[in-house]
């Protein structure tokens, strides 16, 4: 396994048992959290369809939400994460959901699987945090036989402001997730170098997720975002971007 600096927040924050226990509530509670979770599940299922009987690797599985949802749809799912604490919660959640998912500790920078070991690989809300996102994306492509599905906050979006703010706070010593934003061109370039090409993508919100959580109304969020989509803003500034890339025929 590669050994990026283990004090990087993407390792240290999620090695905290309290963070692992609180993670679901922090990300997916309330009407907007539930909207995000439901939308994410629907997009992933559509991008991987048909999924029943297919092998899927969920990299950075966290508490196992996506892995469990795919297992419910009949996929043969393996979920890996660098955090043993998050995996403990994932195993418990899978037990409560009465589905079979194989969970294992592993690092996105050097996955412990053979080339093309899985039909598909998914990776959600991870590349924005990894110390070396290009190496990690290359690993997703290496172990995927047909397609990879992942997401990222776009540079051309409101996420840029939050990213800058968090990076400044992190540099000043604050304990925060100082995530990066991505250009579409940089993502396409890494995929191309690994023999993959984007086939579909979905852009979620024009306005920041924090704004929608402050409003705390699913109906209001849907109305606002539909209005922005009608005038073309979602296609330009929607974020996070979730995409599916498929292995190019040699």
């Amino acid at each position: 396994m590669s050994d990026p600096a283990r004090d990087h927040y993407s390792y240290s924050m999620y090695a905290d048992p309290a963070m692992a226990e609180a993670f679901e509530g922090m990300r997916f509670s309330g009407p907007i959290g539930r909207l995000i979770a439901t939308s994410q599940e629907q997009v992933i299922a559509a991008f991987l369809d048909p999924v029943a009987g297919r092998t899927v690797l969920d990299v950075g599985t966290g508490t196992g939400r996506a892995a469990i949802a795919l297992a419910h749809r009949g996929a043969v799912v393996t979920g890996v994460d660098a955090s043993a604490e998050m995996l403990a919660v994932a195993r418990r959640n899978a037990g409560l959901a009465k589905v079979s998912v194989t969970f294992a500790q592993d690092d996105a920078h050097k996955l412990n699987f053979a080339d093309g070991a899985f039909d598909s690989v998914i990776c959600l809300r991870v590349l924005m945090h990894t110390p070396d996102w290009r190496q990690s994306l290359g690993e997703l492509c290496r172990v995927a036989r047909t397609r990879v599905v992942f997401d990222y906050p776009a540079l051309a979006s409101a996420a840029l402001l939050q990213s800058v703010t968090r990076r400044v706070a992190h540099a000043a010593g604050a304990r925060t997730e100082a995530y990066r934003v991505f250009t579409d061109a940089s993502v396409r370039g890494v995929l191309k170098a690994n023999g993959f090409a984007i086939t579909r993508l979905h852009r979620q919100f024009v306005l920041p997720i924090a704004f929608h959580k402050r409003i705390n109304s699913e109906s209001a969020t849907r109305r606002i975002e539909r209005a922005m989509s009608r005038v073309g803003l979602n296609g330009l500034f929607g974020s996070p971007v979730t995409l599916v890339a498929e292995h190019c025929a040699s």
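Residues 30-48 form the longest helix (19 residues). The mean pLDDT is 91.
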